[in-house]
Write a structure and sequence with these properties.
The structure holds two protein chains of two kinds.
Chain A: H1 2-11, E1 15-17, H2 18-28, E2 33-36, H3 43-50, E3 56-59, H4 63-77, E4 81-85, H5 89-93, H6 95-103, E5 108-114, H7 130-134, E6 140-143, H8 150-162, E7 168-174, H9 175-179, E8 181-183, H10 203-215, E9 219-223, H11 225-229, H12 232-245, E10 249-251, E11 266-269, H13 276-284, E12 287-291, H14 297-300, E13 311-316, E14 330-333, H15 336-349, H16 356-370, H17 386-397, E15 402-406, H18 410-418, E16 427-428, H19 439-449, E17 454-460, H20 461-464, H21 471-476, E18 482-487, H22 492-501, H23 517-524, E19 527-531, H24 534-546, E20 551-556, H25 589-593
Parallel strand pairs in A: 2-3, 2-4, 4-5, 5-7, 6-7, 9-10, 9-12, 10-11, 12-13, 13-14, 15-16, 15-17, 17-18, 18-20, 19-20
Antiparallel strand pairs in A: 1-8
Helix pairs in contact in A: 2-3, 2-8, 4-6, 4-19, 10-15, 12-15, 13-16, 17-18, 17-24
Chain B: E1 5-14, H1 19-29, E2 36-43, E3 48-57, H2 59-71, E4 75-80, E5 87-97, H3 102-109, E6 115-118, E7 124-130, H4 132-142, E8 147-159
The chains are: A alpha/beta, B alpha+beta.
């Protein structure tokens, strides 16, 4: 190790061009794959990539696709996703993916070309104020005007993207800086003056937390994407904490897989389309232990009726999340893995015991809620119900090395409800931003990272058309992604809201013209499949799974099926609509204002 | 809401490109209020600047503002003078009058300790350095005496105790 360090110290004297510095920095950061699209302002970097064999570049068809692919890559590996795009439209096309990554705390390093420094501010060809535009949708960004600042800025960018609460960063590099020679510095020479994320939990807070847990009569572990981001140790610690205490566990959309769905302690997802048992537990608990979630409005429903009788513990690595939406009794700012691990250690060391009789009563109550079987649906022998399609997809892919991505809408909620995840990093979805078009390019990124795995994008026919061009990327790189389209010809969630909130006036939510997805698949050079009846579904799904090619699967489902259970906007957790039968409170005038 | 209060926040930042835009953008993006904002480099060797922001909000909102500011990468620290003890706040203003009631204005300015900078020409310009409330009072006193224009710097603040921000 010491000789390595000495070699590294010597190597810092090396002079490279800006473009070479970029490629070297990527390699020193352990980057093996980048997603990008060339253009005038990044040609020197593309030239440096051409001369180097250490990094695999995946050529997307649109820069939004590059960012979502990088997100899928990042979320399925725990490593940062790297994007390389040109100035102007290259950068602006990447904005949606950056915003998506910011909302869902996904580490992305986005390198953008910029016009030469002397042209900045002159409205030059393909000039955009990239740092200005992306300031609001990145964790941090830089415009590097001096090649002497390039190497340390790139290393800083990786550090900031991946540490603390992860997120996207942009390094905007003018074309002349890419040509200029400058010094290369190794990552270990990094010094940051102001940014110091706190990862170690406060011992007192941990002790207080286990005390509250031991005293709880109706506890719940409410977990989120923070546990996935904190890495496998966090998920392991959560399982241990749940085993020690016997507490029920629910999760946000982003946190699925951190806790095994096969556990009897698993309640299913909570929130707007969460299970009846999860939401009632959230409402009636006396202790809510929120671990790496952020009380998003999809999860809380009506704030002033949110879990009125509970004490609340909130663990988050981002201090600004504590007390942002819901006032809590105990805030813990730390890495989820370290903090949950500390809870487990403190529980054991202090020989804590749960209130067993109270917990038994609580579970008896929970079982009555569970008995409602809130995810049930009315089966059909003639039309494919979307729920049935997903149940069959789940059954026929069990035991496989499986990764699921989704688009956004009804199909996404059905997938979250019905596909069961045992491990973290297996579920990639756009939660915070709700970006239609996320799933297909995300599947590309996942498949790049896991070439032998089965990667399925559960899609809707509307969402998938937003980034359909990336099928061409999948074909170019022999990525056998499976696009499982629940095709109901409607923007299903929009249609559902129009039915429930707008008197059935289906304003512009029906696609009167749709492509023939099977022919489209053939045009792209992949396999197209279609199922229109429940009888043929299993055979077609198996054909999809067994194909070595990328597949577009047109699964024709019931056109008007709604996604239940549902907490209507502006309602509380215990005011769920369970079916089309019209039970539940309906939507108030106030609720209609909410999204 | 009844418990909306005025708060003075000092934000110590690295003086790098775009840092002010980050701070101001945070306020506009999250719907927070800026009543005044003062910024200048305070340590040239360290390239650090101090931003002083006067804002208002409920305790929960102000707690969020502070937490959101601390998240910004170039931010070294945030101090809220309204909750900290022993803060001193000062503001400077330049106040221009038309000079028609020159003698009355000079007399009225005396108790405010405002300094007349421009007395020979057509107009009369005062410089006043004080707590913002006193500056408000001075401007109010000058209004009937031919007030033409006002330029205020916004608040700068510092603590009386031995700590630095």
């Amino acid at each position: 190790m010491s000789t390595d360090t000495k070699t590294a110290a010597k190597a810092t004297q090396e002079t490279l061009t800006g473009a070479q510095i970029v490629v070297r920095a990527l390699k020193d950061q352990g980057v093996t794959h980048i997603f990008g699209y060339p253009g005038g302002a990044v040609l020197p970097i593309y030239d440096a990539l051409f001369a180097d064999e250490g990094i695999t570049h995946v050529l997307v068809r649109h820069e939004q696709g590059a960012t979502h692919a990088a997100e899928g890559y990042a979320r399925s590996t725990g490593k940062p996703g790297v994007v390389l795009v040109t100035s102007g439209p290259g950068a602006t096309n990447a904005v949606t993916g950056m915003t998506d990554a910011l909302m869902d705390s996904i580490p992305l390093v986005v390198l953008t070309g910029q016009v030469a420094t002397h042209l900045i501010g002159t409205d030059a060809f393909q000039e955009a104020d990239t740092v200005g535009i992306t300031r609001a949708c990145t964790k941090h960004n830089w415009l590097v005007k001096d090649v002497n600042d390039l190497a340390h800025t790139l290393h800083e960018a990786f550090y900031i993207a991946t540490s603390g609460r992860p997120g996207p960063v942009v390094v905007d590099i003018p074309k002349d800086v890419q040509f200029k020679p400058g010094p290369y510095l190794r990552p270990n020479e990094l010094r940051l003056r102001s940014y110091r994320p706190k990862t170690d939990p406060d011992v007192e807070a941990i002790n207080k937390a286990v005390e509250m847990m031991a005293a709880a009569k109706r506890p719940v572990l409410y977990t989120g994407g923070g546990i996935i981001n904190a890495g496998p140790t966090a998920s392991k610690a959560l399982r241990e904490l749940a085993a020690l205490t016997g507490f029920p566990v629910t999760s946000t959309l982003m946190g699925l897989g951190a806790f095994p769905a096969s556990s009897p302690q698993w309640l299913g997802m909570l929130g707007m389309h969460g299970t009846y048992e999860a939401n009632n537990v959230m409402h009636d608990c006396d202790l809510m232990i929120c671990l790496g979630a952020r009380f998003d409005d999809r999860c809380t429903g009506r704030i002033d009726a949110f879990s009125p009788g509970s004490k609340k513990i909130h663990l988050d690595i981002d201090a600004s999340q504590i007390n942002k939406v819901i006032r809590v009794d105990l805030g813990i700012v730390a890495d989820a893995g370290k903090a949950i691990g500390a809870m487990v250690a403190a529980w054991k060391a202090q020989n804590k015991k749960v209130d067993a009789p109270a917990l038994k009563d609580w579970w008896t109550q929970i079982e009555t809620w569970r008995a409602k079987n809130s995810l049930a649906y009315r089966p059909s022998k003639t039309t494919i119900k979307p729920q049935y399609a997903l149940d069959r997809l789940y059954e026929l892919t069990r035991g496989r090395d499986l990764y699921i991505t989704t688009e956004v809408g009804q199909h996404q909620m059905w997938a979250a409800q019905r596909l069961k995840f045992e491990e973290p990093h297996r579920w990639m979805t756009s939660g915070g931003l709700g970006t239609m078009g996320y799933g297909l390019p995300a599947a590309v990124g996942v498949q790049v990272a896991h070439p032998d795995a089965l990667v399925i994008d559960v899609a809707g026919e509307a969402s998938v058309q937003m980034t359909m061009q990336e099928m061409s990327t999948a074909v170019q790189y022999n990525l056998p992604i499976k696009i499982f389209i629940l095709n109901n010809e409607y923007m299903g969630m929009v249609r559902q809201w129009q039915q429930l909130l707008h008197g059935g006036r289906y304003s512009h939510s029906y696609s009167e013209a749709l492509p023939d997805f099977v022919k489209m698949a053939e045009a792209f050079g992949c396999l197209g499949l279609r199922a229109t009846t429940p009888d043929e579904l299993d055979g077609k799904i198996l054909e999809m799974i067994n194909s070595k090619k990328a597949v577009l699967f047109d699964c024709r489902v019931d056109k008007t099926e709604n996604c239940y259970p549902m907490i209507p906007s502006g309602a509380a957790h215990n005011e769920m609509i369970l079916s089309d039968a019209g039970d539940g409170p309906g939507v108030s005038e106030e609720g209609k204002m909410l999204v | 809401m009844a418990d909306i209060k005025r708060h003075i926040l000092t934000v110590q930042v690295d003086n790098e490109a775009g840092v002010l835009a980050r701070v101001v953008g945070l306020f506009s993006a999250r719907g927070y209020n800026i009543e005044s904002l003062t910024v200048a480099e305070t340590d040239a060797a360290q390239h650090t600047s101090r931003i002083t922001i006067v804002t208002s909000g409920t305790p929960a909102v102000v707690e969020q503002i502070e937490a959101q500011l601390r998240r910004l990468v170039p931010v070294h620290g945030v101090v809220n003078w309204t909750s900290a003890k022993g803060g001193i706040e000062r503001e400077m203003a330049l106040v221009k009058l038309d000079g028609g009631k020159r003698d009355a204005a000079l007399k009225a300015a005396e108790p405010f300790k405002a300094r007349a900078l421009e007395t020979g020409g057509k107009t009369l310009v005062f410089e006043i350095m004080d707590a913002p409330g006193q500056i408000d009072a001075f401007i109010a006193a000058m209004r009937p005496l031919g007030l033409l224009d006002v330029s205020r710097t916004g608040v700068a603040a510092i603590s009386r105790d031995a700590d630095a921000v």
